[in-house]
Design brief:
The structure holds 3 protein chains of 3 kinds. By secondary structure, chain A is an all-alpha fold. Helices cover 80% and strands 0% of the residues of chain A. Chain C folds into 2 domains: 34 residues; 210 residues, MetI-like (MetI-like fold, Orthogonal Bundle), CATH 1.10.3720.10. At the A-C interface, helix 1, helix 4, helix 5, helix 8 and helix 9 of A face helix 1, helix 4, helix 5, helix 8 and helix 9 of C.
Chain lengths: 269, 265, 262
Amino acid sequence: MSTMDISPAAPSGPPRSSAAGFNDFLLRYASPLVVFALLAIWQLIAMVLVIPVYILPQPLNLIMALPANGQTLFRGWIVTVLEASAGFIIGNIFSIAVAFLVTVSRTARAGIMPVALAIKSVPMVAITPLITLSVGFGHSTVVTVAAIVCFFPTLVNVSRGLRAAPSGSVDLFHILNANPVHTFWKLRMPYALPYLFTALRITAPAALGGAMLAEYVASNAGLGYLIQDGYGRFQFVLVWQIVVVATITTLVAFSTVVFFEKRLVDNRR
Amino acid sequence: MQNGEIELVGVSKTFPSPSGALRAVEQVDCSISKGEFVALIGPSGCGKSTVLRMLGDLDHPTTGSVTIAGQPPAEMRRRRRIGMVFQDANLLPWRTVRENIALPLEVAGKSASGTARKIDDLLNLVGLADFPDALPWQLSGGMRQRVAIARALVLNPEVLLLDEPFGALDEITRNRLNIDLLKIWTEVGITAVLVTHSLSEAVLMSDRIFVMSPRPAVITATIPVGLARPRNAAMQRSQEFFDIVAQTGEALYRPFETDDNEAAA
Amino acid sequence: MSARAIRSETSSRMRSLAAVLLVLAVWEGAARLFSPGLNPIIPPPTLLVTYVADHLGLLFVVMRPTVIEAVAGFAIGSAISIVMAALFVRFRGVEAAMSNTLVLIHSLPMLAIIPLLVIWFGIGYTPKIIIAALATFFPVLNGALRGLRSADRSTLELMHLLDASGLQTLFKVRIPASLPYIFAGLKIAAPQAVLGATVAEWIGSREGLGSQILMALLNYDVPLLWACMVLCAMMAATGFCTILAVEYIVIGRRAEPVKAED
């Protein structure tokens, strides 16, 4: 006799035939394979066509030249990473605080949002020199730029997230006479977390990019500066190496955020 | 009884699921005559929508056969002989009422000149003659479903499938729409299959009611509805109406009451 | 973002405009109060306006290359990304195969690849257009992907019921449904294209807004720097508003109007 459980279960995907198994394999590994293939093609083209090293160095050359430039690269890299991290932390914390303020107080919202919008509308490239003039050359400018880059995306996303809890649930907490801390911790925060991570996914790479941009103009240390210096001195291999290092760093930063997102954010909805 | 417009013979449906196969429909055999209005009623999730979707070629039976006018649903769908109304009206939000109704005509490649008249007729039929250029967001839920009904009928289909079309609406609107749907059906003279979990709706609308058991579904009873046509709202307060509702209800609730009795024993 | 959210964003921008004007007024007052001599870094707005008015000709000459680069890059980047999005939706395998490559390209720091592009293409327009296109690419791709996938299952089932061909479904359902999302992506991308073009001018260029900004910085020419900054912002804003206008023309009344967002 049939059970009382009459809620329909959603039919899941296609049956697991062997053809489907191969398909899954392909879907999972196709993408990294494509990247690898592209790298291989790059190596072959540069090798076979004997392209001058300043136009297209072979990936292998870049790796082999690492020891030569290693120290310079590493020192530059550390500076950039530290500056970007500092800007990331400061910018995001400040931005989250403002997001709270803006959610709680309508007057704050009316006053702050337009200013934030105005700042956002001015591309970073234009603000950086201004900050350089105000704050001076060096690390503080770079960190400030990185922080500003992080400010707006996080502000928008977190303030959206703080309002994301469904009103029905808010009413429930109200009826249960839950204290504000409970309401925040058990209701608003879980709903806001995905939005926060969306912002972090944007701002982590952005902080790195912004830091490098600022270093190019306003610093004599860091990867951004090294690009300017290397390019000026025709050290193109170094420039290429910086590209690779910077890209990998950005990827790692992004992946770290995604890593934490997967563990902290419940995606089972 | 083999010459029905719609024939379901030995139809079953099993879905694969993470926890093993899910048998949604155990065995369904029935025959629906041309021009008949039948209702499929059963508890939530019992598989009645699955049966309807099989008629519309949106799902395929695991065993058994489904035919409409002697053809498989896939063929009828290809020929666009099936009209379907979903619980959500599913109008394209960027098209006006008129344009939404015209959608099947465009897809079927019919010329614009001949079709304007057809759309006007349908607008009159469903009671939306005053709103041809309205956008979906401007319409109430009931009006949107009227558009959906007109859209389902615009290609003069062979059968009309309705999947709890008024389920999302309030009772009063629902009742009014049902009466209007009956008028439309009488006028168009089409074979109609209605999936519902409302007893009174099933009795009001149909010539026969197929009562389905909880999952896995079988047809536990076929209730003929002898009320005179054309039906009207007043009939819903007649003794005859109540009797049929009771009879259907008895068949519908039988599986649950048996369980209760066993539990109490 | 649904069409509804886009509409509410427009009206709240109106209120923002009012607030910005208020800020400008305060700025003017404060800057004058603290006398230009003591605080050269933030001149009062009126001074800026007169500076811009005086040097209008020069500034337009400076702006022209940047505008060309940004617009060209925006157009190319948008076109490529929309086509790519359509391909991805049509051929799921392609998207799966390209996903890591796309992440990689997205991770390339803009500044770092500019020198490489200059090495390859010289100091003409090309590297700047490429950078602008790259900056445009990802927001529009995201928007187009979300948009083309936004058609819900029931609507697609309806098209299946009507035995509509893939192309019919694309043109009658997917594309109209995707327009709000595509425009949302374009609106994000427009300022990014301006940013890309301007940054690209920092390396190996002698004309355009970006290089002018750099020179103003090195020469400590504060009014010029501010003027360029304002122009840069205005370019970005103009791009945004243009898309907004086009969106209104294309989508316009078909989207439901909403109350302003709180």
